[in-house]
Amino acid sequence: MTNKILHINSSGRKEGSLTRQVSEKLVDQFKKDETNVSVVQRDLASGLPFIDEQWINANFTDPEQRNDQQKQALAFSDSLVNELQNADKIIIASPIYNFSVPAVLKAWIDLIARARLTFRYTENGPEGLLQNKTAYLVMASGGVPIESEMDLATKYLKQVMRFIGITDVKVIDATKNDLI
């Protein structure tokens, strides 16, 4: 059985990024400790499309009723959701920019938070559909202590993970981690 890892980098810095360094060491550790590990790398730094009216209309159209243009509008989002659905472990490397996540990571979240695919609405509210996965949040900040009251980014990412059904969430403070 293959252990599938989705490794997401969101730092705008390619060189010298602490979250990139620590998350790569975490991937290397999994490769060393486990057999049959496959890794999908998703680097968000080069940008992602933002959801727009065309995307929203396509997303809220019943999948059986979507025309070719609507299917095309959702194609990239579908591929991101597929990466998540296929992963056993999700590693999200994120710096804290202005108390929150980088805008490109928020764009990724908007593209993967999909009713009927990663969550569904029930009588009791939304229910996440991505079960039996573990998320590792590799966080770094130049001034906001990780998981402090000022750290809105980690709280937000934990909530997003719960929303889509990932309840096993581990936070790694890249500034204190001995992986590097």
Task: Please render the helix and strand layout as text.
Blueprint: E1 3-9, H1 18-33, E2 37-43, H2 53-59, H3 68-86, E3 89-95, H4 103-112, E4 119-122, E5 125-128, E6 134-140, H5 152-163, E7 168-173
Parallel strand pairs: 1-2, 1-3, 3-6, 6-7
Antiparallel strand pairs: 4-5
Helix pairs in contact: 2-3
CATH topology: Rossmann fold
Major beta sheet, specifics?
5 strands, parallel
CATH architectural arrangement: 3-Layer(aba) Sandwich
How many E strands? 7
Mean pLDDT: 95
> DSSP strand (E) fraction?
15-25%
Helix-residue proportion: 25-40%
The span between the termini is 29 Å
| Number of helices, where a helix is a run of at least 4 consecutive DSSP H or I residues | 5
Regions with pLDDT < 50 over 5+ consecutive residues?
A: none
Domain Flavodoxin-like fold: 4-174
EC number: 1.6.5.-, 1.7.1.17
Family: Belongs to the azoreductase type 1 family.
Catalytic activity: 2 a quinone + NADH + H(+) = 2 a 1,4-benzosemiquinone + NAD(+); N,N-dimethyl-1,4-phenylenediamine + anthranilate + 2 NAD(+) = 2-(4-dimethylaminophenyl)diazenylbenzoate + 2 NADH + 2 H(+)
